Amino acid sequence: MAMVCLSDFEAYAKKYLPKIAWDYFAAGADDCTTRDENILAYKRIRFRPRMLQDVSMMDIRTKILGSEISFPVGIAPTGFHQLAWPDGEKSTARAARAMNTCYIASTYSTCTLEEISAAAPGGLRWFQLYIHRNRAASQKLLQRAEALGFQGLVLTADLPYTGKRRDDVRNGFRLPPHMKVKNLEQDFEVCGMSPLDPSVTWNDIYWLRSLTRLPIIIKGILTREDAELAVRHGVQGIIVSNHGGRQLDEGPATIDALVEVVEAVRGRVEVYVDGGIRKGSDVLKALALGAKCVFIGRPALWGLAYKGEEGLQDVLRILQDEFRLSMALAGCASVSEIGQHLVQFSKL
Amino acid sequence: MAMVCLSDFEAYAKKYLPKIAWDYFAAGADDCTTRDENILAYKRIRFRPRMLQDVSMMDIRTKILGSEISFPVGIAPTGFHQLAWPDGEKSTARAARAMNTCYIASTYSTCTLEEISAAAPGGLRWFQLYIHRNRAASQKLLQRAEALGFQGLVLTADLPYTGKRRDDVRNGFRLPPHMKVKNLEQDFEVCGMSPLDPSVTWNDIYWLRSLTRLPIIIKGILTREDAELAVRHGVQGIIVSNHGGRQLDEGPATIDALVEVVEAVRGRVEVYVDGGIRKGSDVLKALALGAKCVFIGRPALWGLAYKGEEGLQDVLRILQDEFRLSMALAGCASVSEIGQHLVQFSKL
Amino acid sequence: MAMVCLSDFEAYAKKYLPKIAWDYFAAGADDCTTRDENILAYKRIRFRPRMLQDVSMMDIRTKILGSEISFPVGIAPTGFHQLAWPDGEKSTARAARAMNTCYIASTYSTCTLEEISAAAPGGLRWFQLYIHRNRAASQKLLQRAEALGFQGLVLTADLPYTGKRRDDVRNGFRLPPHMKVKNLEQDFEVCGMSPLDPSVTWNDIYWLRSLTRLPIIIKGILTREDAELAVRHGVQGIIVSNHGGRQLDEGPATIDALVEVVEAVRGRVEVYVDGGIRKGSDVLKALALGAKCVFIGRPALWGLAYKGEEGLQDVLRILQDEFRLSMALAGCASVSEIGQHLVQFSKL
Amino acid sequence: MAMVCLSDFEAYAKKYLPKIAWDYFAAGADDCTTRDENILAYKRIRFRPRMLQDVSMMDIRTKILGSEISFPVGIAPTGFHQLAWPDGEKSTARAARAMNTCYIASTYSTCTLEEISAAAPGGLRWFQLYIHRNRAASQKLLQRAEALGFQGLVLTADLPYTGKRRDDVRNGFRLPPHMKVKNLEQDFEVCGMSPLDPSVTWNDIYWLRSLTRLPIIIKGILTREDAELAVRHGVQGIIVSNHGGRQLDEGPATIDALVEVVEAVRGRVEVYVDGGIRKGSDVLKALALGAKCVFIGRPALWGLAYKGEEGLQDVLRILQDEFRLSMALAGCASVSEIGQHLVQFSKL
């Protein structure tokens, strides 16, 4: 079977992963409306391609928070990579480094931050943090990340409680006994998400600020009001995200929310987006609407499920080729030429 | 089979109820367009969730006409509960009391008002009235309800004649011989709805007013004009309803009609809505658009069909949990924080 | 099998008619887009029903060009009724008279005008005319109709050539040898529509005017511009029609076109509509948007195919009952109370 | 099997062509969204047909760049006709001449320009050019075309690189060994499109201008900005095209883009359109929106696949008959009467 586009990897993963793992990765909250809308919303955006531009020399590199990456696609934080591939997050880290892009490691990794760092020294990595009721544990974790050379702290804002993912409830999902949420001192029970602190507020960004010199990126913003608050509380970046449709169902598709967030932010901080990226042209649309970079979640897991770090590199390489091609066909030779003039929202 | 969401109960009821009973409960008028629109219209509403609010202490209680209920979901009036479960409305009353919410008992109950009251003393109940040609019978019925401690009188306004429900016609639907519309003196023939008075007008609200001290809630309002008339005629509450799509097909979905009714009412009386509620987040949407409380019809019957009062409690508990979770994920810790800023209508 | 709604008759006809006859009646031009849009467009119109009106005494009669009919549904001109039932248009005439409504007999009837008249003396009938190249033949035909007591002349304006109905081409449709287009002197070949005159213009209405004292109703108008021209050329009525979607595919649905025609006509002549009527509530919508009466085409043929005149009466009676019920449920006790306030166009 | 409409030819070709050839012709880029949108977009346009116009004498001829053609449908440039029929482009040329219309021969023909010319002397033909890195080869090719009597030069602007057509990648598409891209000196490898020059810019139009006296038509314009540039750079015609949806997926449907291009051009040069034409009424819509003529791509290949030049004539004749009929039914007797008043965009 030729792996030609990302849905080939999806089909592979669906076929070969254990059902309980596939269901966990695929899950959306409730009716999965938002999970699916993330994808459909891209389809409602039309390009306005420009012809006869010199696109013989393509430059698809960009920078995020000052670090150059080979193209504007990073790896979003997702949990439990060992469910997809035995080496888990170590493979993810290696693939990201090989492709010269950014990997956001999740609090809920099945490898320790130290293992991840050791697997791919020198790779560009950010660390994703959930604030736990045990604040000391969170502080220790983020300071470990900083010490290990992680270059950004991603605070997830949309999970005071875990969304209701019906299949996980039906399956009674929990990690197999030989896997652990290794970054947390004591073993971690997935179904009772009790360790997370639902009382976190904007002021806790000041608390984080006091603990680390890393840039803070807030993940899970969907409205202009929260974007404004994020900027005012001093974050360096915003990831427009609805957690892959796994938290509040029937919120906006991320590409739709991106528009209002970018407008509110007015260039004061970098804005990224995740959710629904399935083709290189989706990346182009996100950049045209103001994202500095996108992050992929499920497609990275499909790549891992296919062939570990090699499979994830395949996924990234396909996205890279498709992105470069769609840029060229739209008339852009470098990322700096991408702008809102390239897209329009379909009236349908 | 795990009962995870309301459609699990629907599937159960469809599988285990006699076809004639399922068809009766499921029926919509004509093409069932409005019945289905009630559900689809919720899907066109998008949340605008707010992040980093302290949602560690959730308060989902509310009050309707001064009575506190555990969360803003009551039981809408539906007929013939014995078709779903042998104990019929007695089970409904017990479940509603157990969950500390309001049950609107229908004129067309298969238990008497006295049996309902005795089954769950002290529960919050309203009585739903159809005005019959025999006005004395209607008067007697409502005064029995008042004497039994029912705390509200719900006048159904949208049934001068019964809507055309094709499956009921095909099935020749009527109650099995061992069931009766017990609240009415003489036996009651379902298919010839002749006892109902199609000459009822707004002035009859004054007549009802003269008969009872109970608050009067009018059910079946779908336009701003009728909402204004209802307020002017002195009702205490309005239930925006299209009778579950069982009367005039191709009227508005209730959640759409709610918007204009709430606007017209301008807070002068409480506004409720029924029709199409299938998830806790639907409740949140209805409240965000101005409903004080919602009422569920068919889902209550599915719960009864599953396990009587226990099954109905399961349904209510799922809705309660989902509602609490969606509130938290939208950034609201109490019902008073819910407002129109939480939603937007999708352009699709 | 119970005949509960019009689609029951459609299913019956599809099952029992010879394929070539079913295909001919069902045919739309090209992709059948407009044929289907006629129906779908009704679904995009929502009622705004009003409650607590006294609807105990329902009056659904109306008048068209001064003649009272029992309810605002007549029989549109369609050809070749013997394909549906042996007695052909004689049965149609009898059913229309029995139900006290108007029947528009087609030029392309398989019974003569004399046979039609004799079958149901005293019935309200209009005659539909195609203008032929042989003008004398057309003149003779219309004067026969006038002499026989037909009370209106319906000029079909949308058939300079016959639309392309793919199934008819595939089937090589023509009348079986024992049927004739009896109103025309010489036998009539259906597939080569050569006798029709494609040079007819608005001035020919003056020519018709000079030949008859009957009111002239023009059928096939879809734009405000043509509506204005029709009024200026002195017609007494306009039937908004796209020939059941059998002529130019991808024109407007008739209920959509009705709005602009009614607006242009400003009450100067009566406006009717055909196409897509499948339920009593469709009739209510058409009247709310300004039609004085609707005409049914295919449903009448299904009724004939079911049981001849008895079947057509069944169809009319169902529409009548549904129309009366939907009027009552919308809060109207008589046709004069129906108005535009009852409907709104869905934004979907 | 009767060939009644263009989709009959499509079904035939899909059934009888080798899969690799069918896939190549049918292919769209990525998800094929734009390929399919080209067709769907026509369906969103509604006619406003006018009645009672004298349409007894129909004149469907038009002129493109001064040359008369029998009706406003030409053959778009597509590659590799021998994949559809042994005689390849020679059959295409013969059919186009027989039907008295214009054929745009592709650079990637499997017959030489000389063979094409010899097959149908005197036919109206334009030559489609890709600019190659080897500019001398391109120059030689276009001057051969001019010497052979081709009357227009069509510069394809939307293929700096080849779009990603997944099925072609999966199939490892390349020409069978016995076919050649004969117009190019050395054999031509399809999958590595390296000979094409991605550095072509607007200034290269001046270069072409210096090489030939033929009118230059630019193909692949989709925006008003590029339309303005095309006019300013002195082209004589614009073909609004998205390469049949084979290049950048999720650009606009061509019939939608036509509107803005026509508006921008303001009559200064002729505008044509290709993509999605499947019925005569699509041609009428395109002309109503300002196209001077349309070009068909895949339907021509289906015609070839069916019966070579005879099959292509069948396709053209069907389109011609359908176009004439739809003009008549819309009330137009000649192409000059077609205008924007005939259409409106559906709100759906």
From TrEMBL, chains A, B, C, D:
Gene Ontology process terms (BP): fatty acid alpha-oxidation
Its recorded reaction(s) are: 2-hydroxyoctanoate + O2 = 2-oxooctanoate + H2O2; a (2S)-2-hydroxycarboxylate + O2 = a 2-oxocarboxylate + H2O2
Q: Which InterPro entries match?
A: Aldolase_TIM, Alpha-hydoxy_acid_DH_FMN, FMN-dep_DH, FMN_HAD, FMN_hydac_DH_AS
**GO MF term set:** (S)-2-hydroxy-acid oxidase activity; FMN binding
Required co-factors = FMN
Does the UniProt entry include the keyword Oxidoreductase? yes
Residues in a coiled coil are none
Q: What class of enzyme is it?
A: oxidoreductase
Binding residues annotated for FMN, in chain numbering? 77-79, 106, 128, 130, 156, 219, 241, 274-278, 297-298
* GO cellular component terms given for this protein: peroxisomal matrix
Q: Where is the signal peptide?
A: none
Entry annotation: catalytic residues = 243 (proton acceptor)
Task: State the CDD domains in the record.
Answer: alpha_hydroxyacid_oxid_FMN
Q: What is its EC number?
A: 1.1.3.15
What are the UniProt keywords, alphabetically?
Flavoprotein, FMN, Oxidoreductase
Domain (FMN hydroxy acid dehydrogenase): give its ranges: 1-348
- List of residues binding glyoxylate: 24, 165, 243, 246
Q: Which family does it belong to?
A: Belongs to the FMN-dependent alpha-hydroxy acid dehydrogenase family.
Put simply, this protein is called (S)-2-hydroxy-acid oxidase
Organism of provenance: Picathartes gymnocephalus
The gene for this chain is Hao2
